[in-house]
Amino acid sequence: MSTPVIDAASRPAIGRGLRLQWEAAQNAHVLLYPEGMIKLNGSAGEILKRCDGAASIADITADLERAFATSNLSGDVIRFVTMAVEKKWLTIS
Amino acid sequence: MADNLLIAPPRPGPPLWLLLELTYRCPLHCAFCYNPTDFARTAAELGTDDWLRVLREARALGAVQLGLSGGEPLTRDDLEPIVAEAHRLGFYTNLITSGVGLNEVRLQALKSAGLDHIQLSFQDSTRQMNDFLSSTRTFDLKSNVAALIKKYDYPMVLNVVLHRLNIDHVEEILEMALRLGADYVELANTQYYGWAWHNREQLLPSRDQVERAERVMQRFRERGGRQMQIYFVVPDYFERRPKACMNGLGSIFLTIAPDGTALPCHAARMLPGLTFPNVRSAGIEEIWYGSESFNHFRGDAWMKEPCRSCPEKVRDFGGCRCQAYLLTGDAANADPVCDLSPHHHLVTEAVARADHPGNGAPQRSVVEKPLVFRSERNSSTLFVKRDGA
Fold it and tell me: Alpha-carbon distance B17 to A91, whole Å?
C-alpha cells in the first residue's frame, strides 16, 4: 500500500472512527479511538483541530501563522500531517 | 511551620477509563470468563437512572473512554439510552459484546444514539468449537452480526480469547477474520481470574503451543499486510516480568459492577480485607479520591520485598494484585509472574504441568477434570452454596 503524497494542496481529515476533542481535565486536546486515547501536545492539537477535510494544508498553515503571529510553519505542518497519516490519525482527500 | 513539612501525596489523576459492567447476565457460558464465579449471589442490577448518574459524575471528573460490558450488555433493554447519554456527555463509547441480541433494529438505534465502536467476541473459528467453548449455538449468529457491523460502517474488531483448546487454531481463526473483513483482531490469551482461574489446569496452553501460535501470527502479519491488524496479548504465565496491571490500581481505571460496586479493576472484588464502595450510596468523586479501598494500592507504601526496593516498581507497579492474591494468598506480594518473586515457582510449575500433562504429581489430568462452564446454575450450585452464602 503506497502512502499518498502530502503537499500544500492536500486536505486532511480526522480518520474514521477517531474523534478529536478538548479535555478540560487533562488541559489538552485528545484523540480518541477504539479503547484508547492519545493526549496531544499544544501544537499537535492546534494542527489537528484545523483538519476538517475542507481546509488544505496551505490554508491550515496560513491560519496557524496568523493565530500565532509567526511564519515558515509549512514544513512543520507537512511533517506532522505525514506522520499523522502514517499513524491513521488523519486521512487525505 | 511544622505543617509545611508534611507533604501531601499528589492527588491521583482522573479515572480516564470507565468500564460499566451493566449486567452479569449472559447468553454465553464461556469457561474462560473472568467474571466472579459467585456472580449468582450478586445483588440486583442498577437501574437506568443510576447508570446515567454514574456517567455524569465520572465524566465531570474527566472520564472519557467508556466500556460497556458485562455479562452481555445487550441483555439490558436500556443500552440505547445509556449510550445516548454517554455520547451527549462526550464519552467515546465502546460496546464489548458477544453479538447475541444485536439485530439490525438495535444496531441502528445504537448507531443513532452515537455508539462509536463495537468489539465482537468469537470463541473459535469453527461452529463446532465456538459453540462448544461458549456452551451455546452462536457461531452463525456471530457471523451475521459481523456483517451487520460492517454494513453500519463500524471498523470490525474481533476479539478471540485463546487457551489450550483453541490456540492451535490460530491460523484458521485469522483466516476466518480475514473472510469476515475484520479490521483488527485481538488474540487475547486467557487471563486466569474468575471462571478461567477455576478452569486453569484445562485452559493453560503449553509453551510449544504459545510459540507455534506466535509464529503463525507472525507469518500472517507478513502476508496480510496492513488491511487487517493483529494484536497478540501474550499470556503472562510465560513471561518473566509482570504486566503493569491497570497501570497501577486506582490510577486511570474505574469499573462499576452490575450491583453498583465500584472497583479499581474488574477482578478486584476478590481482594480480601477491602470494602469496595457502592455508587448507590457514594458519589464517584468520593469513591475515586476518598475511599480507603481505592487509595489502598496507590503509591508503593503497600509493597513488600522484592518490589519495595526494586527499580522496576515504577514500570510495573508490582504486577497484578489479584494474581498475587490468587497464587500466593497475599495481595501485597509481588505478582508471581515476576522471576524475582519467591513464589515464581507457582507459575513455572503450572506451565510445566501444561507442558507435560499427566507427568506431574499430583495427577491433575487436563483431560479428566471437566471444564466448568459459566452459568447461573453452576455459579449457584458450585460456588455460592459451597461458600456457605
Answer: 27
Give chain B positions within 8 Å (CB) of A87: none
Interface test with B, best of A14, A29, A35, A91 (most B CBs within 10 A): A35
Question: ipTM of this model?
Answer: 0.90
Per residue in B213-238, is it b (16+ CB within 10 Å) or e — as a string?
A: beebbeebeeebeeebbbebeebbbb
| Residues B16, A16: C-beta atoms closer than 8 Å | no
- Please give the pLDDT value at position B81: 98
**Least confident interval from B136-150, B207-221, B319-333, B363-377:** B363-377
Distance from C-alpha of B317 to C-alpha of B378, rounded to nearest angstrom: 35
Residue B364: per-residue pLDDT: 46
Quick one: average pLDDT of B17-46?
Answer: 90
Rounded to an integer, what distance in angstroms lies between the CA atom of residue B293 and that of residue B276?
Answer: 6
A32 part of contact set with chain B, CB < 8 Å: yes
Residue corresponding to grid cell 455459579: B379
CB A6 within 8 A of CB A81: yes
Partners of A25 on chain B (C-beta within 8 Å) are 14, 61-62, 64
